[in-house]
Amino acid sequence: MTTSVPPLSATRFDPISQSARPRARASILEIKPYVPGKSSVTGEGKVHKLSSNESPLGPSPAAVEAMKAAAETLALYPDPGATKLREAIGRRYGLDPERIVCSAGSDELIALLCHAFLSEGDEMIQTRHGFNIYAIAALTAGGKPIFTEEKDLTADVDAILAAVTPRTRLVFIANPNNPTGTYVPFADLKRLAEGLPKDVVLVIDAAYAEYVRRNDYSSGLELAATMPNVVMIRTFSKIHGLAALRIGWLYGPAEIVSVLHRIRGPFNVSGPAIAAAAAAMDDVGHVERSVDHNETLLPWFTDELRALGLDVTPSAANFVLVHFPDEDGRRAIDADMALQDARIIVRRMESYFLPNALRITIGSEEALRATLAVFARLLGKD
User: What is the domain extent for residue 313?
Assistant: First the structure.
């Protein structure tokens, strides 16, 4: 027996069922998707990628060997507590491993913190030119991002404190900041932490902390160790050269750590990532070589750019923010296109409210010299 199907034009629709459809949270529809750094250009030949602040020295050889060895156990679930990694971090920095949370990149920690502490309509404060992921994570959790203005492209502690309302639940501050490279001295960071209400969580994002060589700087570990509402997050993607493995970690009060363990995935860090990151943490020599590379090339590259007449924001990280005056044809978009023609990839800054600036990683000397040559031609100074 067969049953005939009426033609579509004869099908009767219930107007109520027509209007019933999956609806995302309203705040999610406000999100402007994150735009990562460009990673390729068309054509053939060597490419210099200076768009994502990756380490030009790559990962520690010990980390690579540890990851290869971990490949023998790919059929097994990883340690859900990432115990080996937490213990390695604890040894390196003199921290209690029980107060450390490991994650699939620091992005996951940012999302978990928003998920844990933001309810619908609660506020998260960040600076105008702060990391885009903070606002995305807040909106995803139903929160409301509040942007504070900066002074000389540096976080303004007084502006942040003035923006606090009864709905504020989180404050994110990247120190050094991405994409500006500027930092807040420890005295001001402490003043911020002490000035916030005790029910507001201060998140210090110290992704670039290892690169900083300033006497008045601190990653925030001291505050996270002693204050009940301060956490510090770090990453293995930058100086450790493990961006592809996606590994981050957080240190903070036991109560906040307990909350994050309740909501994170039970196997959120893979076995190879745990093994590689633990080995990287123990290879202090590789970190020191990466710091030396940056300490040598960062000031040299900055001086060379300024000699060409370009404005460069002073940076304490492994990148520089270069500004173009938008006169005589000197625009960031033109510079970016000229660099792409030379197979050099940098980062445009429109999404960070800096449309006439480029962020450039301190890569190899070869890559930086090639970049300077393009700028010299573009500016008529070759």
Answer: 36-56+285-379
Query: What gap in Å lies between CA 223 and CA 218, rounded to an integer?
Result: 9
pLDDT in tens, 174-189: 999 999 999 999 999 9
Burial per residue of 260-270, b for 16 or more beta-carbon CB atoms within 10 angstroms, e otherwise: beeebeeebbb
H or E segment and range at residue 204: strand 201-205
320 in Cβ contact with 360 (< 8 Å): yes
**In total, how many domains does the chain have?**
2
How many Å separate Cα 331 from the centre of its chain?
Answer: 26
320: number of Cβ within 10 Å: 25
What CA–CA distance (Å, rounded) separates 37 from 14? 47
The CA distance from 60 to 160, in Å, is: 38
197 and 322 in a single domain? The answer is no
- Give every CB contact of residue 134 below 8 A, 6+ residues apart in sequence: 110, 124, 126, 145, 172
Torsion sign (Cα): 178, 183, 189, 192: negative
Paired residues of 144 in beta bridges: 123
Specify the higher pLDDT residue, 302 or 9. Answer: 302
Can you read off the two tokens belonging to residue 55?
């380490």
* Contact yes or no for 159/140 (Cβ under 8 A): no
Q: Is residue 278 assigned to a domain?
A: yes
